[in-house]
Structure formats: structure tokens, C-alpha cells
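Escalation from tier 1.

The customer reports that the assembly of two entities below gives different C-alpha cells on two consecutive runs. Tier 1 could not reproduce it. I'm attaching the input and our single run for tier 2 to review.
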Amino acid sequence: MRSNYQVNATVRFAMLSENQLEEIHYATLEVLEGTGVNVFDEEALHLFKKGGAFVEGNRVRIPSALVERALRTVPSRVVLYGRDGSPRVFLEDHKFHFGPGPTNNFTFDVFTKERRKPRKEDVARAAILCDALPNIDYAMDLGTPSDVTPELADVHAFEALLLNTTKPIVHWAFDVQGYRLMVEMAATVAGSLEELKKRPFICLYSEPSSPLQHSREAISKLLFMAKNRLPTVYTPCVMAGATSPATMAATIVIANSECLAGLVASQLACEGAPFIMGGVVSIMDMSSTILSYGAPELSLAQAGLTELGHYYKIPVFGTAGCTDAKTLEPQAAIEAALSIMLAAESGANLVHDVGYLEFASTGSEPLLVMADEIIGMVKRITRGIEVNGETLAVDVIHRVGPGGHYLGEDHTYRHFRSETWMPELMDRSRYEEWATKGKKTMGERVIEKARRLLLEHKPEPLPDDVVARVKSIVERAEAEFRAQKAS
Amino acid sequence: MFDFETLAQSVISGDVRKAEELTKKAVSEGVSPLDVINKGLIAGMEVVGQRFKKGDMFVPEVLIAARAMNAGLDVVRPLIADTDLKGMGTVVIGTVKGDLHDIGKNLVGMMMESAGFKVINLGVDVSPERFVEAVKEHDAQIVGMSALLTTTMLVMRDVISALKESGLRDKVKVMIGGAPVTSDFAKEIGADGYAPDAVSATDLAKGFVA
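Tier 1 run:
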């Protein structure tokens, strides 16, 4: 027997210490209680006031006790189901899941290789790719469709996602009316609203406006989801140096304050409502003035916010697999790979924006496909090294002896597949073979794979009658919109 | 009717015991030993080769499959006259003098064996004289040489000279490989072929005896 033997089953990553996390927590409480936040929604202001916050006009100062009560009532985990009702995504502990991002203004078309305005069929294509790629766990739209009624682009995109993947869907809407329509569509697929609540396969997000402001749309959408006990993400988008101080610590405090103000509102509306915190926390590039999606500070601040989420036991919305590069070039690979590694190691639960080019302006099918391969590599690294009698294989080493080889050993046969990650897009062939096959670069191989998946992959269809009912909801929304506009 | 498909499958899945059992069963049922080999054992191994090329199977799996095939072959071999059992041919392979690197060369040997060649593996640090002796002794059709170092690969030229001096050069095909070796170098020293990896080396050898 042996005592005091410790095992690390995975790679260990830790950035902020318990004391540092506590300092950030206290700074956040001080901001919420001392500075306060602006809230532009009557219902939310009423809830805050009734709950014990100090409300003066739109300014809400939230006592620490109120925040700490919300931290106690929020569930530590959220499970997202597939459209088929099977549990798929466990947002808890350090379990990480990757998916694309939403609302890009442009799309990179993998067939024509042009950057153009996204169409509804592009959202369907994003859903098909997400459905096909093994390391992408949920779907988002990867571009706002421009070929539909602009005011209903959110609903049209949701329909395209719903019909083209069985994986969980993370989506958005312009306002509460959009949320209502989407919940109705999802409930139609689930069978009833009750079934959807029991096994939610959708998660809708809304965004506060940094610094420390909560628009009517943002917070009313949040409250709608809380009251329905459906999972929601409240995701600040903070630019260090511009909408938060230049320091990473203060940037995390701003993002966290916005999240926790949303959390308090959600728990005041419905104690125990599922809530996911997180966001896009990065820098404003002081040369171009863009919000950087490839900066090392993005990964750093995201990891900090993720650790804070773990400290609170609240599921975290992360950001990775994205880039400031304009096309699929080495910069995209570097920025996507590093951010995916950091997001996985820090254990962000619902990591989004995989496939973003050009600091979120363009959604890229090829980058999403390449990132799937990167995530595969990262998962292998994260799995760490297993150490035991079987894996140490001293008996095998002894038997083969110096100068022998292990290629034909049963031990090799038993372990090589599980020990080694098998690449699909990474090229490890010899020069001659690579040259014979056309000297293809990663970019070319990625485009080929994306095209093949889009042509070949057929997601599980919904029954015809359900499809018809989902479409009729969208048609009804169109008719109502036209009537409203006419009046 | 004997189920050749299941026998082939036992080779593909590397099930040594089952390949041996099924081969014995075939023999006891009076199936022709050559059919057992060609329609069962070799047929299975051909599937393995195709899957390997496609990237669906990997080296250790190919080697385990070859082991299952050989277990079957051991059962039927005594039942066939030598003249009937036309193998692919005999290959003498070795890492040239001064070089102890042999994992690639061993891989070539195992791949050739699984393709039906008789492989005489001379090991590492093999002198030109030993290559010559082995060709004579085993009546080989092919000589395969390997080197990992830019210094030791020059010895390959000496081996070819030794084959010429002993009058064997025209009776054998010479193929070479190893990290620093190129097809240009093969031409330069008068070898018959170069292969960058074990699979193409096996294909090259098949081409020589075809």
C-alpha cells in the first residue's frame, strides 16, 4: 500500500488565486453598491426597488447583501439538451463546449470564396456545419440574414437554425417580442412549453451596454427568460481602455458588475432561474480603435472572468476561436488556436465566437471548420498523461529490450488510438506525397472539407407537420409586422 | 460452401486465434489450401492495405492483421507443394554499415511481409559483403537499403559496387530509403528505385517482381 499519492487527470491551469478572486469580488460589490448601474426598464427598476436596492431615477445602487443572496439562489449548473431531447451540453464545473458566434455583418462564402452579406441560407449552412463537426457542441447563426425583413432577421435566423441541427441552439432577438416567437417555435418542436422548460435546447442571450448600463431591451429579455425559467446568457462586451479602464483587473470588475446586476434582476424576477454569465472582454486596439478578437488580452481577461464564474459557481459564457485577420491566413490560425487553448484550460463552459473573422465583422465557415481541428488538438492536450502500471508498461519495455521496437506489440495496438489524437486536416505526410496531392495548404484543405460537409451532411429532419407549424409562426410574425407597419 | 468472408474478417480485425481456427476448419472441410490463402487470408490483408492507404487503419493494426494472416498461413503451408506456393519474392533488407537506425527499415520489412514477400532482415550496421552473401544464400530478387545519416547513406554506393563485383547486380533490383535519401540520390548511385515510406516501398517492390 501507499499513502499520499496524488493524481492529475487533466492539465491544470490556474491564473488568479483565491485571494485575488475575492479582491475582484469585493471591488465588484463596491461598484454595484457605491457607483451603481443605470437601468432603463420600468419593470426591472420596480423589481430592484422592491428587492431592497436604492433607486434614484435610472440609477440603481445594489447592496452587497442583495448580490450575495442572488449568488446563493442561482443554480450552479445548466444543462442544454439536443432538439431530440437528449442531454448534450453540461454547463458546470470546468466542462467546456465550443460553438460559433452570432450576428456578423458579412459572411465568407466557402463556395465562391467571396466576402458578402449573409443570407438566410447561410444560417442554415452554419447550422449544418455545426451539426456535422464533432468538436462543435452547439449552433449559432454566424451572420445576420440580409435577404429577409430586417426587423425579423432574428426570427428568420432562428428558424434556419431550428430546422438544420439537432444540437442545442444559442441565439438572440431584437426585443422581447422576438423572444416570445422563438420560445413559441421551440415549444412547438419540444411538444409544449412545459417540455421545453424541462429539457431546454435553446438558450437566448442579451447584452448590457458597457460601462454599467442596462437597456430596456437587454434587461426585459433577461427577465422574460427568468420568468419562464429558461436558460439565458447575460453577456457584457467590454473594451479595455475605452468602456472600462485600461487594466485587466478593472475590465473584469466592469464586466462582472454588469453580469451580477443582471443576475440580481433575474433572481428577483424568479428565484432559481438559470443564468449564464460571461461575455466578450477584450481591449480597444488603440491604433485602429476596433474591439480586438485576437488580442492576448482577450484570452487573459476571459480566463479571469471564467475563474470568477467558477468562484461563484455560475456557468460561464466564453469567447475563443476568433481573429482580427480578414481571411483564413496564419494570423487567424494563431489567434484562434491560442484563444481556444486558453478557453479550454480555464474551463469556460459555453465558449462562443468560433469562426469569427475581422473582429466579428465576418462569419467564416472555413475558420469554423479549422477550429474544429484545433479543438481536437486542445482536447487531447487537456486530457493529460495517464500514469499507472498499464501505461508505464515496464514489462513491455523489459521484453522488447534495447534495440527492439514496439510497432507490433499488443500494448501498442491496445493504446495507440486512445493515446494519440488522429488529425484530419493537419498534414503529416512526406513531401513527395504532399506534392503529389497538389501541395495543398491548410486553407485549401479546410475549404475542401467545408464544401464536402455542406454538400454531404444531412441533419436529422423535423417531422413535416412540425416544420409547417414552425414556418407558420414566422409567417404570422411577418403578417403582424406588415399590419403594424400599415397602421 | 466455406465462408471466406469471415476468415478475411478475422485477418482484418487481427484476431490471430480465429484466423487460425477458421483456416483449420477450412482445411478439414476440404477447401483447397490455395483458395484459403487467396480468397481468405490474402483477401483480408488486401482490405487492410486499402484501409491503411485511406487513413482508416494505422500501422499497429496492419501489423496485428499481418500476424493473424501469418497464423493462418502457418496452418496451410505444409499442405502445399513449394512450387504451388508462389510467393511475391524474397527481399534482403538492412541498415547500411555505420548506421544503427532501423525503425523505418523494420517498418518496410513488416509491410513487405504483410504483402506476401519473404523478408530477410539483416538488421543494422550491415556491411556490403553481408548484403552480397545474403543475396546469394537466399536467392533474393530485391535488395533494400536504409540509412538515416548523410554520412552513412554514402555506403549504399559501396553495396551496389559489391553487388556488381560479385556478378549479382543484374539479378537483383536495388531499392533505397531513409530520411536524407532522395530519388535523385538513387539515380546518382545507380539504384533501381527510391521510396519515401513503407507503403510506397512495398508498392515499388511489387512493381519489381510483377
